[in-house]
Write a structure and sequence with these properties.
CATH topology of the largest domain: TIM Barrel
CATH architecture of the largest domain: Alpha-Beta Barrel
Radius of gyration: 20 Å
CATH superfamily of the largest domain: Phosphoenolpyruvate-binding domains
Shape: globular
Number of strands: 8
Helix content: 40-55%
Largest sheet: 8 strands, parallel, barrel
Distance between the termini: 37 Å
Strand content: 5-15%
Strand order of the largest sheet: 1-2-3-4-5-6-7-8
Oligomer: single chain
Length: 271
């Protein structure tokens, strides 16, 4: 018998129940088998296979270059590592904006080829048809409003969104439209905390914040930021729980020293 069989799998239904009970939802990004396994075992509720892989795994400046094939590869790796958490896979730039048929085809590929549980796409009113079409085939969709990194060239900056009245009003409207279209949850990125609170209270589906204050139903961070692997990125909303870049640097230096000084391998470490 699988020792994990008594572990209840997290589903979209679980998240809905958590919102209703006022229990906060934890979400983190992952892009490979090893970290996904560690995060799942630690008890995280959602793993996002983020298109942030474009930045943190591939070294691109923006999320735009990553392809659907590359996202599928990362998602396959993550899914092999998990037992119980919900896996959400980002649809990358260019794989859904064309039309709702293209969006549906991309979502179907992700579900069929990765074993992931849901997809995420950015935008409001302009993606509603795509959301309806994808949800209509039984694929759960998570929305994403506020700072939508795939639109970085339109914004021209990564600063806080929806400070202006008109943009805030549109965001509130978009949130309701996405809920009506069938999204099971929404990511709210880098928007004023008060606005995020209003949106969260106006919806019956959960909101997951990143730089959107403590009144969202859950929080998400990029693993490389939260674990201190990536040291260049220090926004106000980031809490760094480890300083892995320093620890890894020290460990590797010690390893090099031990090889050079012939300390490694010792007699105990050979056959």
């Amino acid at each position: 018998m699988n020792i994990h069989s008594e572990l209840k799998k997290i589903t979209t239904h679980t998240l809905q129940k958590m919102k209703e009970a006022g229990e906060k939802i934890s979400m983190i990004t992952a892009y490979d088998f090893s970290f996904a396994k560690l995060f799942d075992q630690a008890g995280i509720e959602i793993i996002l296979v983020g298109d942030s892989a474009s930045n943190v795994m591939a070294g691109h400046e923006t999320t735009l270059p990553i392809t659907l094939e590359q996202m599928i590869y990362h998602a396959q790796s993550v899914v092999r590592g998990i037992e119980r958490c919900l896996v959400v896979v980002d649809l990358p730039f260019g794989s859904y904006q064309g039309n709702s048929k293209e969006a549906l085809n991309s979502a179907i590929r992700v579900m069929k080829e990765t074993g992931g549980h849901s997809v995420k796409l950015e935008g409001g009113e302009e993606v509603v048809e795509s959301v309806k079409r994808i949800v209509g085939t039984g694929i759960p969709v998570m929305g994403h409003l506020g700072l939508t990194p795939q639109s970085i060239y339109k914004f021209g900056t990564y600063t806080v969104r929806a400070r202006e009245e008109a943009e805030a009003a549109k965001l509130k409207r978009d949130a309701l439209l996405l809920q009506e279209a069938g999204c099971f949850a929404l990511v709210l990125e880098k928007i004023p905390a008060l606005l995020a609170k209003e949106v969260t209270e106006s919806l019956h589906i959960p909101t997951i914040g990143i730089g959107a204050g403590g009144n969202c139903d859950g929080q998400v961070l990029v693993m490389h930021d939260m674990l201190g692997i990536n040291t260049e990125f220090k926004p106000r909303f980031l809490r760094q729980y480890l300083n892995l870049s320093v620890q890894i640097n020290m460990a590797v230096k010690q390893y090099i020293t031990d090889i050079k000084s012939k300390d490694f391998p010792s007699e105990k470490e050979q056959y």
